[in-house]
Amino acid sequence: MTRIYLDHAATTPMAEEVIKTFTDEMNNEFGNASSIHHTGRNARKKLDNARTILAASIGAYETEVTITSGGTEADNYAVFGTAYSRKNEGKHIVTTQVEHHAILHACEQLEREGFEVTYLPVSKEGIVDVNDLKNSLREDTILVSVMYGNNEVGSIQPIREIGEILKGHTAYFHTDAVQAYGSIPINVNDLQVDLLSVSSHKINGPKGIGFLYQRKGIHLKSLFYGGQQERKKRAGTENVPAIVAFAKAVELKQHQLEKSISHYKQLKSTFLSQLESDGVEFTVNGSKEQVLSHVLNISIPKTDVETFLVQLDLAGIDASSGSACTAGSIDPSHVLVAMYGENTPELRNSVRFSFGISNTEQQVIDAAKKISKIILGS
To answer: How far apart are CA 99 and CA 76, in angstroms?
Structure first.
C-alpha cells in the first residue's frame, strides 16, 4: 500500500537537495567554527554564509539571527529571555489562547515565578481582536507574543496591525512564525516585530535546528552558559552541517514560494471538492481567507477523531488531530476550545490535513475518496 502523507504541518520530509547538502557537509566539514586554524575557519565561513541566507529570507541582518535547536528553543528564548532581562521594568506579558505549547507552557512557568500573563481570546475563526490586544496593554507590559500562522487550523493573525499598535509601546513584540515561515512572505521590518521564531523541519530541512530573529538593540538574557558562540547569546558548538542544510532548505523554499502557495491552494480546493462530490458533510475550522495555504482543519459530524485517525492510518493516510506535540493526549485541542468553547462537537470530530510540495492532485483525490468511504461506510 502506498501511503499518502498529509501531515506536513507536523513535519516535512527533507528535500533531496537538502539531504545531499547535509551529507556532503557531514563528510567534508567537521571543524569547530570557534577554532582559529584552517579547518575551523572553513567551518566558520560555511556558518557565516548560511546565516546570511537565513537573515536575508526575512529581511534581517546577519547579526540579528541566533541559531537554536529548533522552534521550541527559539520560543523559549524569546519568552524567558525577555522576562528575565526586563523583570525590573515590569512583569506583565500578553499572548493568546491559541499559541503553541512552547509559548503557553513557558508563560505558565513564568506565572509560577510571579509574572502576570494575559491570554487573549480569539474569534470562531481563530483570530485575535486587535482591540482586545490594545486594551490589554499596560505600562508594565514587557512582552507581546502572538503567533503568525496557527499550526492546528492555519489562521493568520494580524501581525502587521499589532506591530503598528506596539510602535508607541516599550513592550517587545515576538511572533512564533514556525508554521508561517516558508508558507507566506515574511519581512520583519514590514511587520515591525522585535523577535521571530523559525524551525527548519517545517520547510523540508533537518530536525533539531532553527533560529530566533532578535532585532538590533533588543536585549535578552541568555539561557545557556558555556562558550561564546552565537555572539555570546547561545553557548554550544554550532551544528554546522545542519545549519548549512537548513540554509539550503530556505533557498529552495524561497525560490518556489509563490509556486508552492498556488499548489497548496489547488490541493486544498481539489480535496474539498472531492469530499463534497462524494456527499461528505463537513465544515472548515478557522478562517477561509486569513489562512495558511497548506493547512486544512475540518469538522466531520458524527465521527470520533481518535477512531477516525486509526481508520485513516489503516487506509494509508497520514493526518492529525492537531499539534503533533500533543499526539496521544486525550485532552481536546486548546485551539478549538478557544475558538468554540468547551464541550462542543468540534472538539471530538475535527481532523487536520496539511499539504506539502511533493503532494499531487491525484494523491489528494485518492485520499478524499478513501475518507469518503470510511465516513459513508461504502
So the answer is: 13
